[in-house]
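We emphasize that the prediction below concerns an isolated chain of 84 residues; any contacts that depend on oligomerization or on bound cofactors are therefore not represented. The input was used exactly as deposited, without trimming of termini.
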Amino acid sequence: MTTKQPATPRRKITSRFVICIKNEGYSVSLEKRKIYRVIPDTKAYAHNLLRIVDESGEDYLYPTDCFVPIHLPQRARAVFAVAV
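Result of the prediction step, given as a token string:
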């Protein structure tokens, strides 16, 4: 009798901002080393995706492994929330 192994937990990013670390397949939409704002989306998280406001100014879903979460100081958050 075999037992099922528990599913690997998905990496949930709770930061409001991330840095793009890879953009293969998304070079028009994402710039490496750029900070992006994350729009909360629990359905996307469940599929290992993030809803990101990309270069078009619109929000789209991208794989979480394209990004690394960052935590900005309070003063910077206010600026990036408006500027990004």
